[in-house]
Each structure stands twice: as structure tokens, then as C-alpha cells.
Amino acid sequence: MYNFNLALLAKQLWRLLRYPSSLLAKVLKGRYFKYKNPLETGKANAPSFGWRSIMAAKDLLQQGLRKSIKSGFDTKVWADPWIPTIRARPALDNGNGRYPNLYVNHHIDFNTKQ
Predict the structure, then answer these.
(1) I want to staple 40 with a disulfide (CB 3.0 to 4.6 A). Which of 15, 36, 57, 67 is the partner?
(2) Is the sign of the CA dihedral 12, 19, 38, 71 positive or negative?
(3) Which domain of life is it from (predicted)?
């Protein structure tokens, strides 16, 4: 029953991300994540039981989320989970020096769309 409840809470959090113009998303945004997205929020002052419950499912949701590449300007190669594997993950480092702020758009040829 606990896992089922956690899955439903994760779905609510996903809906906040997917439908930011919904009434619930607008109300919660005004109170808890005004300038960020819900996955980047820290601890809130005097959070409601509902918000604490939704935040309990944040780790579960982050395990399955992948970033959508689109133009690649807001997806970091080494930090964001964007590779389509069973568990979403960022790129793996091969041990060579790496540029920490490398974005996916640096690897896209915009003329050929590859």
C-alpha cells in the first residue's frame, strides 16, 4: 500500500511538471516553488501535509525522468539524465578531463539536424 501511495504522489508531481497552467500547479507554485520547478525546491517554511507528501515522492520521480533534448541548450551532458536507458542517467565520464558546463547543443550540427 505504501508503494502504491508513493506512485500516486509521484504522478501528481509529474502532473505539476507536465501541466504548469493547471489550477493546482498555480496554487502550489505561488506558495512553494515560485521561481523554480518543483524538483529544484528545498525545504519550505511550514509546508502543508499535501506538499510534504508530494515531496516524499520526488526521489522516485527523479529516478525515471529523462530530459527532453529539443535544442539541447538547457541539457548538461555530465549532470542531467538524458540518455535513454532503463534508468535515466547522464553521460559517463571516461576519465579524461571534461568540461563541466558542456551542453548537448555543443554536439548538435544545426545545419544537418544530427
Answers:
(1) 36
(2) positive
(3) Eukaryota
Q: Is residue 49 domain-shared with residue 78, that is, in the same domain?
A: no
Give the residue numbers spanning the domain of 70. Answer: 66-114
Q: What are phi and psi of 103, to 5 degrees?
A: -105, 160
What's at 22, amino acid-wise? Answer: S
Query: How many Cα neighbours within 13 Å face the side chain of 10?
Result: 15
Q: Are 114 and 107 in contact (CB under 8 A)?
A: no
Q: Are residues 35 and 19 in the same domain?
A: yes
Domain match, 59 and 76 both? no
| Statement to judge: residues 15 and 38 lie in one domain | yes
Q: How many domains does the chain have?
A: 2
Read off the pTM. Answer: 0.69
- Which cell numbers hold the place of 80? 542531467
Instruction: Return the pLDDT at 4.
Output: 94
**Rounded mean pLDDT of the chain?**
85
